[in-house]
Design the sequence.
């Protein structure tokens, strides 16, 4: 039965679909629902540009006097009740370059929408990278838990043989079996973390949250790039799309000021009318021309002009706040990167080898009857904690590498 279960697990592992980081990022860019929703903002901006370039429609009017002649004895000279109809067409002549200013504002809004889309893409890439690292870390923790369980099961087998030969008390086997069950519980918890991390990754990729049959491929990122804090800041100020979006929003605000000033210019309304006063006779027809314009005594669009100016000042303040925030993010990311790198180096150089030596020596002494099971279990758990700390530090280092790239705006083409 145990062999059949092992074969089933092996077959399931063969069927598991490996996912690389590049594949996860690409699939998320193509299928992530939040990003797809953000892309519509660019299409909406295109529609606004189209609408901004349209001219006002002319107005067509038609009027008919539907009175009928009830007096049969009415002569042609008595036309007081004769039916008549008239038509009129009015055109609005926009002044101040309103149409050009509307198009300018709409184009600036589209530029802002494109940069905001790039910023959403930058954040999505970082989320996918972090989720992928979480899945890798959970996978490594599961491997460690399984190794610990296997080691403890081997000790249980040795102790059972020693009990049969009379070299060990039965209570010692019970202790090792209990410890093996505890390690088995750790395996189950590690498997749950693997499924949870894969579910989050698949959700970001736009896939159904079914982690069965899926696994992350490749080791944790371990490269050591040369990182200079000032260069990270400069690169972020030049490439971060959220900062560039605010800068473009400044240009949009300036265009809006010009639009509101143009809106203060009154438009002319010109029209032409044709009237047929007698609907049944051959009498003289008439045509008229009309011109009208509002008199800008009180309303000269002062409120909207002032609103646009205040909005520009608000955006300038937001730009300075974003620059300060980016500088703080760069500082924090750099410190996290430095700390995690030093932690990985310290565990590699000083702790791993010592913990392994202590565990191996204690295990050898325990199997020879020179050490107690408590001492061996402490050494085993110390090694487990050290390796787990090492895996966590490596995962945190990989996250911080991706965080540095995201903070500096690398990989985003504005």
Sequence:
């Amino acid at each position: 039965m145990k062999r059949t279960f092992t074969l089933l697990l092996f077959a399931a592992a063969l069927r598991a679909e490996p996912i690389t980081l590049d594949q996860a990022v690409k699939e998320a860019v193509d299928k992530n629902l939040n990003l797809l929703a953000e892309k519509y903002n660019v299409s909406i901006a295109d529609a606004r540009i189209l609408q901004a370039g349209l001219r006002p429609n002319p107005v067509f009017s038609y009027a008919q006097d539907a009175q009928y002649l009830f007096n049969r004895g009415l002569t042609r000279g008595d036309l007081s009740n004769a039916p008549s109809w008239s038509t009129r067409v009015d055109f609005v002549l926009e002044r101040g370059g309103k149409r050009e200013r509307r198009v300018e504002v709409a184009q600036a809004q589209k530029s802002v929408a494109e940069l905001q889309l790039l910023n959403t893409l930058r954040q999505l890439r970082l989320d996918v990278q972090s989720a992928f690292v979480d899945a890798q870390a959970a996978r490594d923790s599961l491997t460690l838990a399984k190794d610990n369980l296997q080691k403890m099961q081997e000790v249980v087998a040795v102790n059972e043989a020693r009990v049969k030969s009379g070299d060990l008390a039965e209570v010692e086997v019970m202790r090792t079996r209990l410890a093996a069950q505890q390690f088995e519980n750790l395996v189950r918890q590690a498997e749950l973390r693997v499924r949870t991390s894969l579910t989050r990754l698949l959700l970001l990729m736009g896939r159904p949250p079914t982690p069965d049959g899926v696994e992350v491929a490749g080791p944790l990122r371990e490269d050591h790039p040369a990182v200079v804090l000032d260069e990270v800041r400069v690169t972020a100020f030049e490439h971060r799309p959220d900062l560039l979006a605010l800068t473009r929003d400044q240009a949009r605000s300036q265009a809006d000021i010009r639009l509101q000033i143009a809106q203060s210019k009154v438009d002319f309304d010109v029209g032409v009318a044709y009237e047929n006063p007698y609907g049944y006779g051959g009498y003289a027809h008439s045509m008229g021309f009309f011109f009208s314009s509002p008199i800008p005594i009180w309303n000269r669009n002062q409120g909207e002009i002032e609103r646009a100016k205040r909005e520009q000042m608000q955006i300038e303040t937001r730009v300075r706040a974003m620059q300060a925030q980016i500088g703080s993010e760069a500082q924090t990311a750099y410190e996290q990167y430095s700390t995690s790198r030093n932690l990985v180096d310290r565990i590699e150089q000083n702790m791993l080898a010592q913990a392994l030596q202590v565990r191996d020596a204690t295990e050898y002494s325990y199997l020879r009857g020179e050490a107690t099971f408590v001492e061996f279990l402490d050494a085993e758990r110390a090694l487990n904690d050290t390796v787990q700390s090492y895996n966590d530090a490596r995962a945190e280092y990989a996250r911080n590498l991706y965080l540095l790239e995201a903070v500096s705006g690398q990989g985003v083409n504005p």
Q: What stands out?
A: Residues 98-164 form the longest helix (67 residues). The chain has one domain: 17-62+81-408.
